[in-house]
Amino acid sequence: MKNPLLAPELRELIAGGDTGVLKDFCSSTHPAGVAEFLSALEPDEIRQVLSLLDAEPAAEIFHHLDEGMQTETVERLRRSELARIVTHMAPDDRVDLLKRIPEDKQHVLLQALAVAEREDVRRLASYEEGTVGSIMTTEYATLPPSVTVAQAIERLRVAAPDKETIYYAYVVDEARKLLGFVSLKDLILAPPHRRVEDLMHPDVISAGVQDDQESAALLISKYDLLALPVVNGSGALVGIVTHDDATDVLMQENTEDMEKLMAIGGSHEAAAYLRTPAWSHFRNRAGWLVGLAVLGLVSGAIVQSFANLLVQFAILATFMPMLADTGGNTGSQSATLIVRALALGDVRPRDVLRVLAKEFAVSGLLALTLALFCFGRVWLFARGADVTGGLSVARVGFGVALALGLQVVTSTLIGALLPLGAARLRIDPAVVASPALTTIVDITGLLIFFTTAKVVLGI
Fold it and tell me: Mean pLDDT: which of 57-61, 279-283, 288-292, 423-427 is highest?
């Protein structure tokens, strides 16, 4: 997020070479706040500010810049400046940066690290994007089960400066197999002579290195964890996912689901609207819209086939917009609830019958309510006007109300079935939940409307 309020003042300080005030500003403000203000500047100006600071605060401020601004700033950094910053970044942040920057800068980044750190970054970068391994960090604290509480606290005191968190210390054996964990609170409150194996919690909530990153984030949210241990296929501890990374993942996934629900393709990066070129926005949005427009021709064909009915009963045309809107709205409500339930693990594709039973009950009540409203609308609109083709107002109202009620029920069930079917086929439910739903509901709604009208009106 950009905050332009201080941009003119910061530019004046940079142009005037007032390094003292700039340093005071950066040291007296939280790194996230500094990054927010710097985001309103040009990448070259950001580079000048970061070059004035010590390596650790510069890396912290750089970490809080959004991804696009990080990439643009890296392209302006000198070799020594980039090396100074990446040395003090967390391993998972280094990996994320490595994947985004040009190849020549990747070489500089890797060369700036010690051999062990370099191999660590390469190992983390090898995990597939979207997996737990791609977001975990290797800066975690471990303890052997045999040490005493006093020895454990001393180990954590020495290790603390280089670890992401020491509130959780993970107990591992010689093969690094995860045995349990102890919290810092457990250690502080325990007698110094007690052993860690007597204090540790053996039932550890963990994630697999190849699991989906969203599942790990949901575990952290569900159990209120500060960090989640990550194990490989052998049960050995290979990293942790921290709560701040989980928050980033959930925000990214929510952004992705929201955009997919609105038929927007391409990448789904939060806070990237203004930095995305107009042509990219066009490519992301045009595909679905053109495809759905072509499919929408079916709706036009249906209306055309019932043109004589509309000529004979002009009142029917006045209710077509309400029918389409109501069907789309009820279907979208159902689809949104099911997509959310699937994302949270509350519902699975195998629960299809239970979901349909519940949605059928809900849609029945909605259909009755809206059908009564619709009948009243026909009665008030048509009474005293010659728009019913010689039939009674009550008969026409019943036909329209029945069609609307059937549309509500079918739209609700379609809205539930589409995401469940997509999940069964291992397709992202958000992709089909809204884009395809509107067009399908329009087609089924028109068929229901005109067929019901013909049957009820006896044409």
Answer: 57-61
Give the architecture-level CATH label for domain 278-457: Orthogonal Bundle (1.10)
Contact 236, 204 (CB under 8 A): no
Tokens of 245: 């990374």
Angle at 43 between CA 39 and CA 44, to 5 degrees: 135
Note the pTM of the prediction, 2 decimals.
Answer: 0.64
CA angle 293, 295, 296 (to 5 degrees): 60
Residue 192 φ/ψ, nearest 5 degrees: -60, -30
Burial 121-152 (b: 16+ CB within 10 A, else e): beebbebeeebbbbbbbbbbbbbbbebbbeeb
Residues in the chain: 459
Choosing among 3.90.850.10, 1.25.60.10, 3.40.710.10, 1.20.1250.20, the CATH entry for 4-126 is 1.25.60.10
For 49, other C-beta atoms within 10 Å of its C-beta total 22
Q: Which span out of 386-390, 426-430, 441-445 was modeled with the highest average pLDDT? A: 441-445
The H-assigned helical ranges of 17-102 are 19-28, 31-38, 43-52, 55-64, 67-74, 79-86, 91-100
Predicted local distance difference test score (pLDDT) of residue 436: 73
Query: Residue 292, exposed/middle/buried by CB under 10 A (0-12, 13-18, 19+)?
Result: middle
In this model, does residue 263 exceed pLDDT 70?
A: no
Here the tokens at position 409 are 């029920």
Number of Cβ within 10 Å of residue 213's Cβ equals 25
How many angstroms separate the CA atoms of 437 and 329, rounded?
10
Contact 228, 243 (CB under 8 A): no
Q: How many CB atoms lie within 10 A of CB 293?
A: 10
pLDDT at 279: 74
pLDDT of residue 190: 94
> Sheet containing 140-143: which strands, arranged edge to edge?
140-143, 165-172, 178-183
Q: Which CATH number fits domain 140-249: 3.40.50.1220, 3.10.580.10, 3.40.50.970, 3.20.20.70?
A: 3.10.580.10
For the chain, give every domain's residue range: 4-126, 140-249, 278-457
CA 210, distance to chain mean position in Å, is: 19
Number of Cβ atoms within 10 Å of the Cβ of 246: 23
pLDDT, tens digit, 9 for 90 and up, residues 30-73 = 998 888 888 888 888 899 999 888 888 998 999 889 888 888 88
Average pLDDT estimate for 302-331: 77
